[in-house]
Amino acid sequence: MLISFLFIITAHAQYYLRGEIRDEKNNLLSNARILLHSTGYIYSSGSSGSFGIMTTKHVDSVTITLDGYQALSIKLETAKFHSLVLKTLYTSANLQKNRLLSFTRNLKPGERRNWTVGTETYNSLLENEFVLAEKYPETGFAINTDKASYSNVRRFLNMNTTVPPDAVRTEELLNYFSFKYLPPPEDSVFGFHSYVSECPWNKTNQLLTLQISARKLDPEKIPPSNLVFLIDISGSMDMPNRLPLLKSAFTLLVNNLRDKDTISIVVYGSTIGVWLQPTSGKEKEKIRKSIEDLYPGGSTPGESGIRTAYNLAKSQFIKGGNNRVILATDGDFNVGQTSDDELEKLITLHQQSGIYLTCLGVGMGNYKDSKLEVLAKKGNGNFAYLDNEREAEKVLVKELTQTLYSVADDAFLNIDFNADLVKQYRLIGFDNKWKALVDSVSELDGGEVGSGHSVIALFELEPVFAAGQPVTNMPNLAKINVRYKLPNDTLQRYTSYRCPYNVTSFASLPADYRFASSVAMFAGLLKDSKYAQKYTWSDVIKLATESADPKDAIQQEFITIVEKAKKIYSKIRKRKKPIS
């Protein structure tokens, strides 16, 4: 009897497999899938990348898998602590390369410092400089619909404080405004219009204003949407301009839902999980109540929330539909994977899934502009900053189709200047991150373009022919090619346009284009650009006042914003003035 008892004890002896899982850069990997061969049971690594598994064997074998990494099968001894490394798949590694917003071959970046404000973070940008057209005739930029920088700049100025230079993304300020929409030809996704005029801040140079307009979707033909609201309800969101603002914003969006749309809500904070199961847009009252019942508390496990939201979006995936996660947060991730690089990798793994990512930033103090901008771009999506309820209405109601419904993906514009007409050129805005510029394997980053969206791009040109010099029978100024894909399609498509060289006086430009120039000048002063030395805040106010649409409240507000900036920055200059 005693012998039988000892045999049973030995047969059911418990051993413990312990260890951690990392990637090749020594980052801990959470949620890796661990198959225990002796039982067939599946476990996963925790938020710290560690694992502990009970087994009846002294030596057992496991297979570890994680999206984007090579599977690892290995025998493990229970007497040891194991540090296991998963190797990145080639395709995943390729996707994780730094991305460029604009690109001119063979140019090397200068030095640049990083900018932070309190605990807010911004990607360090390097302003585009003049480029010799004869040596480098081609340059290009991503076409996208991000507008977050303008509302964030407005927030700083409304707080009577200066703006971090790297928070000023000129192209986002320019394209915050709804300029007159010029529809493309019926058979095209994109339409083009261009003007060459005098440059308002440098009379010896010229200004190329280029407008690219995307096709509008027929409202009756907009496909059904599978939207997952991923809402940060952590303790840091317990401020009037954070969770309460988001609740108002999402309630506004709900009012525009159709019966064929499906809405889910995932939350992360004191709890992580599905707050609202997939629900038809017909049940608006149920969705509104679910939003209203949200309450803040706890830490910020953003990584776990992102994983949960993507898994839910995949489970409800609509083939040919608009599948999108809408992440709303102050960006203060402090549990799980928290660095920009780690979160980039997480989003990159879902990039090819056909699920877009829209990021909505709120709050101040610990607002992480750099983090949300990266996530949106890696998620083939767009990015907005909500500083008040009016901005929420603009983004999620008035511009809903531009924000949520894509007509082109991975869109990139390439422009080839005619060196017989252009001596030098400078792309205004679309400045690259320092990190991407110094990375020798960085790639061009295309953008997602929403329905009916227009992009204004400005180039300052130093012409071959001096002002007043007769120019007749001239060829085109430049040739433009746009590379893009249709949503849910892998086929690369192209469309082209030739910019005529017809010089117009600046005063004769359409008012929208003159107003756009005032916005670019405003951005230059905020960034303390070396190209903004020949004009003042008063010049910007004068040009904006003369060209702004008196019926456009947003353009009129811009004038008051510039006036605030003038007061704030004038005080600083007075303080710096030496005492004689």
TrEMBL record:
CDD domains listed in its UniProt record: vWA_subgroup (cd01465)
Pfam families: VWA (PF00092), vWF_A (PF12450), YfbK_C (PF12034)
The VWFA domain, residue ranges: 226-404
Protein name: VWFA domain-containing protein
Superkingdom, natural source: Bacteria
InterPro entries xrefs: Ca_channel_alpha-2/delta (IPR051173), Uncharacterised_YfbK_N (IPR022156), VWF_A (IPR002035), vWFA_dom_sf (IPR036465), YfbK_C (IPR021908)
